[in-house]
Design goal:
It comes from Paenibacillus brevis. InterPro entries: YdhG-like. This is DUF1801 domain-containing protein. The structure is a single chain. The radius of gyration is 15 Å and the shape is globular. The protein is of the alpha+beta class. The protein has one domain: Aspartate Aminotransferase, domain 1 (Alpha-Beta Complex). The chain has a five-stranded antiparallel sheet. The longest helix has 28 residues.
């Protein structure tokens, strides 16, 4: 993928090779379904979903799809993600293997619940100081 400024997730997907566009559309649909109240945006030049802060990002690369659910999302699903390359807050899903859409959905739901809870705690904390 070329590094360029994308205006929207649609523009990002459109700029990707045609053979990965379907995968990206499906990941987007799954994330929307898992976190319907999340807003779409481009952050770090990647498709991003925001729900009381960054929820998940994803991006296409030559050999894999990068999925970025923050360190908490990786830790919570460590056993299932062990077979994939990854880092502290990222995982690489190889394009030559079946895409783990169900796992992406479950991680997104986990992160959404985590962000909603974090937001409630923040609101509670703010109210108690008055």
């Amino acid at each position: 993928m070329d590094k360029m400024a994308y205006e929207s997730i649609d523009a990002y997907i459109e700029a990707c090779p045609s053979e990965v566009q379907g995968i990206l559309h499906e990941i987007r649909r799954i994330i929307r379904e898992a976190a319907p109240d999340a807003a779409e945006k481009i952050s770090y030049q990647m498709p991003t979903f925001d729900l009381n802060g960054n929820l998940v990002h994803f991006a296409a690369f030559k050999q894999h799809i990068g999925f970025y659910p923050a360190p908490q999302g990786i830790e919570a699903f460590e056993a299932e993600l062990a077979k994939y390359k990854g880092g502290k807050g990222s995982v690489q899903f190889p394009l030559d293997q079946p895409m783990p859409y169900d796992l992406i959905s479950r991680i997104t739901k986990y992160r959404a619940e985590e962000n909603r809870t974090k937001d409630k705690r923040k609101a509670k904390k703010g109210n108690s100081s008055q």
